[in-house]
Design brief:
The protein is α+β, with helices and mostly antiparallel strands. The chain contains 19 helices and 35 strands. It has a 12-stranded antiparallel beta sheet. Helix 7 crosses helix 9, helix 8 packs antiparallel against helix 9 and helix 9 runs antiparallel to helix 12. The termini are far apart.
Length: about 800
C-alpha cells in the first residue's frame, strides 16, 4: 500500500509471521482489502470466503465530529481509529446507512459497569493504529490499544475468532446481539457456562430505513451459536440500561427509533469473562443460520467442527480465494497494477452471498423455511440489481456458470415467494426496493448469455413477462418513492399507456426510469429469443425502443437529450428544488434522473447505440458530443468530478460510456479513456475505489477494463474492446479458456495497433458471443500512439438491436 510506507513497514514487522506460507503463484496474497475503505468505497476489510455467508469484520464507532450515526455503510472508514466490535455479517460497498453488521463481539480489559446500551456506538470501544492492523483475503488481525489482539477468519457459514488478552486487567468479551449496524427489532442471548456456549438471534433489516418508512422494518432473523475453547470465569447479561451479572438470558432489540436510527439506551446482550492472570488466548467458533439455531449448529459442525484450529481455517480461506482468483492468471505489469487488479477481482466475488444452510434450507421472502430446488447447490442473497446487471453478474457467470445459474434460480425463488415481484434490491430475505427501474430481467438475461443455463429459465421468463404486462397494486403505488418505490415496475400502467414514464408517475425520475425500463424490456426480449419465444422477443424489442419517446431532438442548442415529459405529451420544465419556479430544460439538470444528469444519462441506451447516434443526427454529431462529454475545451480528459456535463466514472450511470467510441469509429479513444480511468482513479490506497463499490459492480468494471474487454449490452455476451493492462493473461473457465497476449503492454502503451483472434486478423473492436462462451486466443499489438484507422469502419462497429 502507498498511503504510508512507514505504517506498512511496521505492520509487516508486527504481523508478518501470521501470514500462511504459500507456493507461487499466490494471487490471494496480492489482495489488499483496505483498498476502498476510504473515499466512499464503503468496502469492509474483514474475513470472508468467496460468496460466503459470513463477513467477519471490524465495526468502527462513527466519527464523533460528525452527526452521522454510523462509521460508514461497510462498517469501517479508514480515517477513523476506534473499533466498537467485530461483526459477523456485512455487505461490500453499499450506500445509505448500511445494514447487517450483526452480532458484534467486543473484547475488553475492564469490568462491565454501565450497560453497553448506554451508547452502543461508542461504549466499551477501543482505539487502534493502522500500524497494528493487517487485512488479507480470508483473514483480518488487529492489536487494539486496550492490549487485546483480535484475529478473525471464516468458512462459508462460520466464523472463527482468536482474542489474545494482555496479562493485566480483566479479560471479557461482550456479545452485542441487538447491536446490528442499523439496529434491531428483537434480539435474545443465552449463556450456557457448563458447555462454554453462547447462543441467540437478532431480527433486523432497516436498510435505507432512515430515508423512508417503507424500509423501516425487519425482514430477517439471524441465529448464532458460539463455542469457546476456555471455561468462563464470569458472565452476565444486560437489557437496555440494566446490567445483571450472573444471569444467563436477556432479550430486547434497539428498535429503529423515530427516524430509522436506533436510539440510545435500548438493546440487549451478554458477556463472558476469562481468567487472565497470565494473559489469555481465547478461540471462539461461531455458526450462523438464517433459519434456526439448530441449523447454525449443523453449519458449525459441518464446516468448523470441534478441534479445528484457527490456522487451518485461515489457510483454507486463503486457499479458497487463491483458487477463485487464479481463474484469471496474469503475468507482468507493475506491482501496484497486480494488487489493484486482484483486489478488484476479490471484491467482485464477495456477493451475492450463500444464504442456504448445509442441509439446503433457507429462509424465504415469505418468512418460511424452504429447501433448494433440485438443480441448486446454494440459495444466494444480497442482490443490488441496479448495479450488478451492468457487468458483475456477467463476470461471475463467465468464471463460474454454476454460480451464475444458482443466482438466477435464487432470484426466481425470491419472486415466487414475494407474490411474483422481482425486487430490484434484496437484502438477506427481504426486498428493499432501493434504486429504480427493473433490473431483474437484464440480470437473468446476462446470466443466460454468459453460460449460466442450469436454472428454470422458462419459468423465469414467464414470470418476468407477467410482471411486465400486468401491473400489480404495488406498481401503482407511490409507497417508498422516490428512492424505494415498492413496485417492481413503478408506473407500469402508465408505461403501457404512454410508452414512457411521465412526470407524476410513481418513480424516482421519469427520464431515468424510462431508460432503465427500456433496458429491462430488452432483457426480456433477449432471454425470450434464446428460449425460442420469438414473438415475445419481437414484442419486447419493440417496447425497448420506447426510450425514443423521451428523446427530445430540440432539447438544447447542442442537440437532443432525454427529457421529462408530461402525461399529455408536452415536454416538462425542470424542477430543481421546491424553492424555485420550474425553468427551461438544460443538460446539467438532475430532475428526472437518478444519481446523474441529463448529460450523463443521454448515453444510456446500451442495446441500441447506433439508434441513439442516429437520433443525435448521425455519427459525426455523436462523435462531437462524445468529445465534449469526455474532454474539456482545452483537451483535458474529464472522467470524474468534472461537473454535471461530464461523466462520473465513479458511478454506474456513466460506466458504460467510455466504450461508446468503439461504436463511433474511434476505438482508440476508448482505449485511451479506459486506461486513463484505471490508472488515475483506481489506486493501491484506501482511497483507491472512486465511489461505492456496490457489491462488486465497480470492481467488476475494473476487472473487465484491465482485461481489455467489456460486456456493454445487458443480456448479450458480445464483448467490446479496449486494451489489456498485462502482457499475458489466461482466463480459466469451465466452458473454455481465454488466452490474451498483449505485445508491448505497458502503462504508456494503451493503443491497439493490430489484433488477431485465434490466429486470424481482426479489424473490429468487438468479439462475438461465441468467443465469450467458448473461449479462444487474442493477440494484441499495443503502441504508444493511436492507430486511428484500426476498427474505424462503420461496418466494424459492435451490433446494436433495433426493430426493422
Amino acid at each position: 500500500m502507498k498511503q504510508s510506507t512507514l505504517v506498512c513497514a511496521v505492520a509487516v514487522t508486527v504481523l508478518a509471521s501470521w501470514r500462511p506460507a504459500q507456493a507461487a503463484p499466490d494471487y490471494a496474497g496480492l489482495v489488499n482489502p483496505l483498498i476502498g475503505t476510504a473515499n466512499g468505497g464503503n468496502v469492509f476489510p474483514g474475513a470472508a470466503t468467496p460468496f460466503g455467508m459470513v463477513q467477519f469484520s471490524p465495526e468502527e464507532s462513527p466519527d464523533p465530529k460528525k452527526s452521522r450515526p454510523i462509521a460508514a455503510p461497510g462498517g469501517y472508514q479508514h480515517h477513523l481509529d476506534r473499533i466498537r466490535g467485530f461483526s459477523l455479517t456485512n455487505v461490500s460497498g453499499w450506500g445509505c446507512a448500511g445494514g447487517s453488521g450483526d452480532i458484534p463481539l467486543t473484547p475488553i480489559t475492564t469490568e462491565i459497569g454501565a450497560s453497553p446500551s448506554i451508547d452502543y456506538r461508542h461504549a466499551y470501544s477501543s482505539t487502534f493504529s493502522h500500524a497494528n492492523e493487517e487485512a488479507q483475503a480470508g483473514a483480518y488481525r488487529v492489536k487494539l490499544d486496550n492490549g487485546v489482539v483480535a484475529a478473525l477468519t471464516a468458512t462459508t457459514r462460520t466464523g472463527l475468532a482468536r482474542f489474545i488478552y494482555p496479562a493485566r486487567g480483566s479479560a471479557n468479551l461482550l456479545i452485542r446481539v441487538s447491536d446490528s449496524e442499523v439496529g434491531s427489532e428483537a434480539a435474545k442471548v443465552h449463556i450456557d457456562p457448563d458447555h462454554r456456549v453462547v447462543s441467540g438471534e437478532v431480527t433486523s433489516g432497516n436498510f435505507c430505513g432512515y430515508i423512508n418508512k417503507e424500509d423501516r422494518r425487519s425482514y430477517y432473523t439471524l441465529h448464532f451459536v458460539a463455542v469457546f475453547d476456555r471455561p468462563f470465569k464470569g458472565y452476565g447479561v444486560w437489557k437496555d440500561l440494566t446490567v445483571t451479572p450472573g444471569a444467563v438470558d436477556a432479550s430486547g432489540g434497539t428498535t429503529y427509533g423515530e427516524t430509522g436510527f436506533p436510539p440510545t439506551g435500548k438493546g440487549s446482550g451478554g458477556w463472558v469473562g476469562f481468567d487472565a492472570d497470565k494473559g489469555a488466548t481465547v478461540n471462539v467458533r461461531i455458526g450462523l443460520s438464517y433459519v434456526s439455531e439448530a441449523n447454525a449448529w449443523k453449519n458449525l459442525k459441518a464446516e468448523n467442527p470441534d478441534g479445528t484450529t484457527f490456522e487451518a481455517v485461515r489457510d483454507s480461506a486463503h486457499a479458497a480465494w487463491n483458487k477463485r482468483l487464479g481463474q484469471i492468471a496474469t503475468e507482468g505489469g507493475a506491482p501496484d497494477q497486480r494488487t489493484i487488479f486482484y483486489t478488484a477481482l476479490y471484491h467482485s466475488l464477495l456477493h451475492p452471498n450463500v444464504f442456504s444452510d448445509v442441509n439446503g434450507e433457507y429462509e424465504g421472502f415469505d418468512a418460511r423455511a424452504h429447501t433448494l430446488e433440485a438443480r441448486q447447490q446454494a440459495q444466494y442473497a444480497n442482490f443490488s440489481g441496479w448495479d450488478v446487471y451492468r457487468d458483475q453478474l456477467q463476470l461471475v457467470t463467465w468464471l463460474d456458470p454454476k454460480v451464475g445459474s444458482d443466482i438466477a434460480q435464487s432470484l426466481l425463488n425470491q419472486a415466487r415467494q414475494n407474490g411474483g415481484v422481482w425486487d430490484r434490491w434484496t437484502h438477506e430475505s427481504g426486498g428493499v426496493h432501493v434504486m429504480n427501474g427493473d433490473p431483474a430481467a437484464p440480470a437473468v438475461a446476462d446470466i443466460w448469455a454468459f453460460g449460466g443455463r442450469d436454472f428454470e429459465a422458462g419459468a423465469a421468463l414467464a414470470s418476468l413477462v407477467q410482471a411486465a404486462d400486468y401491473p400489480k397494486a404495488v406498481d401503482l403505488s407511490h409507497d417508498g418513492c422516490e428512492v424505494e418505490c415498492a413496485g417492481q415496475r413503478p408506473g407500469l400502467d402508465q408505461w403501457l399507456t404512454h410508452h414512457f414514464i411521465p412526470v407524476g408517475a410513481p418513480a424516482w425520475g421519469g427520464g431515468a426510469d424510462t431508460l432503465e425500463d427500456a433496458t429491462a424490456e430488452f432483457g426480456v426480449s433477449a432471454l425470450a429469443d434464446r428460449l425460442g419465444q420469438h414473438e415475445v422477443a419481437a414484442r419486447f424489442l419493440k417496447r425497448a425502443q420506447y426510450w425514443r419517446n423521451l428523446f427530445n431532438p430540440k432539447a438544447a442548442p447542442d442537440g437532443g437529450y432525454i427529457q421529462n415529459r408530461n402525461r399529455d405529451g408536452t415536454w416538462a420544465l425542470v424542477k430543481d428544488d421546491d424553492d424555485k419556479a420550474p425553468r427551461v430544460f438544460t443538460p446539467d439538470t438532475g430532475d428526472g434522473f437518478v444519481e446523474g444528469t441529463a448529460a450523463q444519462y443521454v448515453w444510456m441506451v446500451p442495446f441500441n447505440v447506433a439508434g441513439l447516434f442516429d437520433a443525435m443526427g448521425g455519427l459525426d454529431k455523436a462523435r462531437g458530443r462524445l468529445d465534449r462529454f469526455f474532454y474539456t475545451p482545452d483537451g483535458q480528459m474529464a472522467v470524474t468530478n468534472a461537473g454535471p456535463l461530464h461523466p462520473e466514472l465513479n458511478n454506474e450511470p456513466s460506466i458504460g460510456t467510455p466504450w461508446l467510441y468503439d461504436y463511433a469509429g474511434e476505438p482508440w479513444k476508448t482505449q485511451e479513456l479506459v486506461r486513463k480511468v484505471i490508472s488515475t482513479i483506481w489506486l493501491d490506497t484506501p482511497e483507491g475505489i472512486p465511489g461505492n463499490d456496490d457489491l462488486g459492480a465497480m470492481s467488476s468494471w475494473y476487472v473487465w477494463a484491465a482485461l481489455g474487454l467489456y460486456p456493454e449490452t445487458p443480456g448479450r455476451a458480445e464483448l467490446v474492446l479496449g486494451s489489456p493492462v498485462f502482457p499475458n493473461i489466461v482466463v480459466h473457465r469451465p466452458l473454455g479458456d481465454v488466452t490474451i497476449h498483449a505485445e508491448g503492454a505497458a502503462a504508456d502503451h494503451p493503443y491497439v495497433h493490430a489484433l488477431k483472434t485465434n490466429g486470424q486478423a481482426l479489424n473490429r473492436p468487438w468479439l462475438p458471443e461465441s468467443f465469450a462462451l467458448h473461449g479462444g486466443t487474442l493477440d494484441f499489438q499495443l503502441g504508444a500512439v493511436p492507430a486511428k484507422l484500426w476498427g474505424s469502419e462503420r461496418k466494424d462497429a459492435p451490433p446494436s438491436f433495433d426493430i426493422d
